[in-house]
Write a structure and sequence with these properties.
141 residues, alpha+beta, 5-stranded mixed β-sheet
Length: 141
């Protein structure tokens, strides 16, 4: 049995039929080929699958795709425009914040959500916003 779902992903509407237990992460990676959101812990503890749902950072591994019906999803693939990187992507690149890159999409998506609500956050606010994102390269800091 499949469930009809309409999602606007990176500004493009997608009408899909998904399994009732399919997560948003499943749909993004397997059905739509958007692999920027990473599959890691599948428990919402690492942040590697972070995407924006109506502008709010969420763990795509915990959200059923059917519950996102009619909503807007932004993935790391949808941040840049016209071949240009998003300013936060550019900042990560310029400041060597990439490491292995596995956590980078989730970190950037959490950062974009933060900057949309707090344009000039202090260090403590940034730490709180990124708290759910783990970087194994830095010893989880």
């Amino acid at each position: 049995m499949k469930v009809p779902v309409t999602l606007t992903i990176n500004g493009v509407a997608h009408a899909l039929e998904v399994a009732p237990n399919a997560t948003l992460l499943d749909v993004l990676r397997r059905d739509l080929g958007l692999t920027g959101a990473k599959e890691s812990c599948l428990e919402g503890r690492c942040g590697a699958c972070t995407v924006l749902l109506d502008g709010r950072a969420v763990n795509a591994c915990l959200l059923l795709a059917a519950s996102a019906d009619g909503r807007a999803v932004t993935t790391i693939e949808g941040l840049g425009r016209g071949g240009d990187l998003h300013p936060l992507q550019q900042a990560f690149l310029e400041h060597g914040a990439l490491q292995c890159g596995y956590c980078t999409p989730g970190m950037i998506m959490a950062g974009v959500a933060l900057l949309a609500s707090v344009p000039h956050p202090d260090e403590e606010t940034i730490r709180r916003a990124l708290h759910g994102n783990l970087c194994r390269c830095t010893g989880y800091v």
